[in-house]
Amino acid sequence: MSVFHSTMSRRQFMKAIGLAGAGTGAAALVAPNFHDLDEVVASGDNLQKHPWYVKERERLDPTMEIDWNVIHRYDRRYMGQCSNIRAKYYGKAYVEKIDAESGALQAQRMKDNVPGFGHKWEALRTGLSQSNKWSVSYLGPEVSGKITAATPESLGVPKWQASPEENAKLVVAAIRLFGMAEAGFNNLDSTWRTKLVAFNEKGSSTGSQWIDTDPANVPPTAARPIVYENVDQPYYTAEKWVIPANKDLNVLYLGGPEPRETDRTYPSRISKSNLVANSGTRNIAFYSTYNFMRALGYNMFGGTGHGTDCFQTPGVAVFTGKAEAARMTNWVISPSWGPRSTDLCQITDMPLAETHPIDAGLWRFCKTCGICADSCPSNSIQGLDAGDPSYDMPPINGKPDTQHISGMKRFYYDGSGCRNYVNEFIPGSGCSACAANCTFSTGSGAMVHTVLKSTISYVPIFNGFLANMGRTFGYGAFEDPEEWWNASLPQFGIDSTLTSTVKSQ
């Protein structure tokens, strides 16, 4: 019989936490009667059906508390990465100094063959770069400034017509072929339009040219505002993105796992956040999904990329039921693959059946864990000593926090301190220490992980114990980034079966 850590059988372990036979304790009140771990793993057997331990909540009601009377659209000119915001908290001279020296430090590390930053790592990073004949625009992928996608008219067929449920299933099947794993949908109603659509694109507002400028005075040409007008079709100019005000539209979220092992090379040239899958897989999925939707007869718009879309993308994952909020705040956590996602958000006029927020116990677990904060080299994440999540924003380096918006009961993250640390000490990396060490960044190859996920969902009394177990087992970054080169990894470095129920024949 196979054993767990050579001392306990799988069935014994399941019985110990109340998931086998009649069950014991709190788990027995809510869990199905599984006979073995294979039944647990196979329990989520429908397309995008959550495992039994993941509960669906009401629309726009995530596990993190939100005060809808306070929350408002986020102005990206106040992002912690912006040079003027960094200077506000840590001083202009310091920010200019570390930014000016970061390029030379990165080049010297390559020449010195520093593990994670040497010649072969630079070659690997270069190989991940992409150049496309098309470019991203607010309206979709453009070639020489024009949309070239096929339409029903050009194909000689009528517009595709189906129910919202059928359309949703169609989209999920297609995006999995295009490189994504999950899709979330929600109606772009007044709450989304007035609270959750970003105030503007990021544009060039993070640049050093604005270091002496009050964020409110950064011009619209640098961070185009997203506005609503009574028009039939979306459009953009040099100074604005326009969403039709009176059309029935939907939010479309696409997400999939990024390679865990690239994060585990922290710090390195490939541990950079939003680098590996986002520089390739997301572009493929964006281009392919856009052409798919247009060929069916529907519009899809909103831009794509870090800060160059209409939403704070992690939040959309939460509101469409694909993730929960996390202590580290800059990431959310998917119950399928953890904190590191390649994802994008769009707006479409295709009718789509909504998906709602979930409760997989992830946010509750984050409250008792704190590993991400312990591993953060810049102390930019609130740890266990901060207590419970709060609506009250703590100061950043002694000054009021303007990086976040009010209205969310959460932990807070210092984006300026994080960016400064990267530029000063590990330029060319994006750190990602928090994601690399997150309890949910561990692999899913061991079937017992499915049981552990169900345990945190329904028996939260074990959360502190399981968090400490993660520390004991030493999950997280490689001791030496060079270990990555000897790892036997799947194609694209990801487990593409995480959300699939199809078994090999």
Automatic annotation (TrEMBL):
Record-annotated 4Fe-4S ferredoxin-type domain positions: 354-386
Subcellular location(s) of the protein: Cell membrane
InterPro entries named among the record's database cross-references: 4Fe4S_Fe-S-bd (IPR017896), 4Fe4S_Fe_S_CS (IPR017900), RDH (IPR012832), RDH_dom (IPR028894), TAT_signal (IPR006311), TAT_signal_bac_arc (IPR019546)
GO MF term set: 4 iron, 4 sulfur cluster binding; metal ion binding
Pfam families linked to this entry: Dehalogenase
Cofactor(s) this protein requires: corrinoid
GO cellular component, one term: plasma membrane
Keyword check for Cell membrane: yes
Keywords in alphabetical order: 4Fe-4S, Cell membrane, Iron, Iron-sulfur, Membrane, Metal-binding, Signal
Top-level taxon: Bacteria
NCBIfam families per record: RDH, TAT_signal_seq
Protein name according to UniProt: Reductive dehalogenase
Organism: Dehalogenimonas sp. 4OHTPN
Organism ancestry: Bacteria, Bacillati, Chloroflexota, Dehalococcoidia, Dehalococcoidales
